[in-house]
C-alpha cells in the first residue's frame, strides 16, 4: 500500500527541519514533537583566563573583568648594592599590602586601579626602617580586540599615577606620571600566553626616571583547578632623573644621587646614574589555583636574572587572590 502524508503533517515536518538547520542562538528553546529542548550556551574560551602574578602594579590581564585583587608581597633586599660610593650594605626586606580594583562596563571597557597599598620597609643597614602608603594609580582599559573564535584579546590601557605616597618609603616624589600599556592574551588548548608592553612617563622628568617594561606570562592547565606558570619581566630606563635630594628621611635624601640603578616596578628613585644599569630582568615561577568559579588564588617566587646588586631585589614572594563578580 502506498504511504500517504497529509498536508499539515508535511508542513510541521518542514518547519522542524528548517528550525534545526538554522543557527539558533545559545540558550533559546528548540521546539520538537516532545516539547522544548534548551540549547546550552557555549562556554567562553576566556572563562579559564589566568591573571599574571609578578609585576603586579603594571602587568594586567588584557580582558576587562569586574573584581578585586588583594596582593601581599614579601620582597628581600640585596645584601649589598652598587653606588657611586662603592658597594654599600643593605639587606632586610620590604612587605607590600595592596588591593587592586576593576569595574567592567562591558566586555571591552573597564575602570582599573592598579597601584595603591601600604609599604613596610625593613632594611638591615644604610637605610632606615619606615612604613607608609604607596602612590595611587588608576585609569581605563579598552579591549580593541576581543575575538572568542580565536580566543585572543588585546587591550590598551592608560593610567595616571599620583604622588600621594609617603616619601620615607620612596613614594610621593615628582608630579605624577602617565602609564600607557598595550596587553594581549591568547588561550589555546590548555595553554595561555599573555604579555604587556608599557611605559612610565613622568610629568617631572627630573624627579623621576622615564622607563619602560615588557612582561610575559605562560601557564598550563595541569588540572581543572591547578595552573603552573612562568613569567619574565624586563624594565628599561630610557631617561634617568636628575638625582636631586629627595626622600630626606633616608640618608639625608642622597639615594637618587648615589645609586646606579632604578627601582623596578614599585619604586622610581629619579636616580641620576641609572644609565649605568639601564636594564633589570626578573624571572618568576608559580601557580594559580581555582578555588571556585569566581575565585583564583596565586603564588609566585621571583628572582633577578641581572645582577641583584644593581637593583633593589634579591628575591620576592607574591601571593594574591583574584575575585571576580
Q: Work out the count of structural domains.
A: 2
Strand tally is 18
How are strands sequenced across the largest beta sheet?
3-6-7-10-11-12-13-14-15-16-17-18
**CATH-defined architecture of the largest domain:** Beta Barrel
Give me the secondary-structure category: mainly beta
CATH topology of the largest domain: Porin
> What percent strand?
over 45%
Fourth CATH level, the homologous superfamily of the largest domain: monomeric porin ompg
Short recap of the structure:
With 325 residues, the protein is mainly β. The protein folds into two domains: 7-38, no CATH class; 67-324, Porin (Beta Barrel), CATH 2.40.160. The chain has helices at residues 7-21, 255-258; strands spanning 29-32, 35-38, 67-76, 80-83, 86-89, 92-104, 109-115, 118-123, 130-133, 136-147, 152-162, 177-188, 191-202, 210-220, 226-239, 279-290, 295-304, 315-324.
Describe this protein's structure:
The protein has two domains: 7-38, no CATH class; 67-324, Porin (Beta Barrel), CATH 2.40.160. The strands form three sheets. Strands 3-6-7-10-11-12-13-14-15-16-17-18 form a twelve-stranded antiparallel β-barrel. Strand 4 and strand 5 (86-89) form a beta hairpin. The protein is mainly beta and 325 residues long. It contains two helices and 18 strands. It is globular, with a radius of gyration of 26 Å.
Amino acid at each position: 500500500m502506498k504511504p500517504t502524508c497529509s498536508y499539515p503533517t508535511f508542513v510541521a515536518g518542514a518547519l522542524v527541519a528548517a528550525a534545526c538547520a538554522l543557527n539558533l542562538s545559545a540558550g533559546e528553546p528548540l521546539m520538537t514533537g516532545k516539547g522544548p529542548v534548551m540549547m546550552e550556551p557555549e562556554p567562553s574560551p576566556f572563562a579559564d583566563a589566568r591573571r599574571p602574578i609578578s609585576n603586579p602594579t603594571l602587568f594586567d590581564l588584557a580582558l576587562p573583568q569586574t573584581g578585586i585583587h588583594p596582593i601581599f608581597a614579601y620582597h628581600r633586599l640585596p645584601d649589598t648594592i652598587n653606588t657611586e660610593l662603592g658597594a654599600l650594605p643593605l639587606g632586610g626586606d620590604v612587605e607590600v599590602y595592596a588591593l587592586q580594583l576593576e569595574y567592567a562596563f562591558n566586555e571591552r571597557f573597564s575602570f582599573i586601579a592598579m597601584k595603591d597599598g601600604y609599604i613596610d620597609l625593613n632594611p638591615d643597614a644604610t637605610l632606615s626602617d619606615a612604613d607608609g602608603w604607596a602612590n595611587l594609580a588608576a585609569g581605563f582599559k579598552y579591549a580593541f580586540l576581543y575575538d572568542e573564535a580565536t580566543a585572543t584579546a588585546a587591550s590598551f590601557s592608560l593610567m595616571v599615577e599620583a604622588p600621594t605616597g609617603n616619601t620615607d618609603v620612596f613614594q610621593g616624589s615628582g608630579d605624577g606620571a602617565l602609564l600607557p600599556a598595550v596587553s594581549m592574551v591568547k588561550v589555546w588548548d590548555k595553554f595561555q600566553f599573555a604579555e604587556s608592553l608599557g611605559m612610565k612617563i613622568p610629568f617631572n622628568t627630573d624627579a623621576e626616571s622615564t622607563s619602560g617594561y615588557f612582561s610575559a606570562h605562560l601557564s598550563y592547565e595541569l588540572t581543572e583547578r591547578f595552573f603552573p606558570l612562568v613569567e619574565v619581566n624586563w624594565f628599561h630606563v630610557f631617561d634617568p632623573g636628575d638625582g636631586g635630594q629627595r626622600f630626606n628621611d633616608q640618608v639625608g635624601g642622597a639615594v637618587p644621587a648615589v645609586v646606579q640603578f632604578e627601582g623596578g616596578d614599585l619604586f622610581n628613585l629619579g636616580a641620576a646614574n641609572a644609565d649605568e644599569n639601564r636594564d633589570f630582568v626578573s624571572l618568576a615561577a608559580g601557580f594559580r589555583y581555582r578555588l571556585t568559579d569566581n575565585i583564583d588564588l596565586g603564588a609566585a617566587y621571583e628572582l633577578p636574572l641581572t645582577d641583584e646588586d644593581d637593583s633593589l631585589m634579591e628575591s620576592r614572594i607574591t601571593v594574591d587572590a583574584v575575585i571576580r563578580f
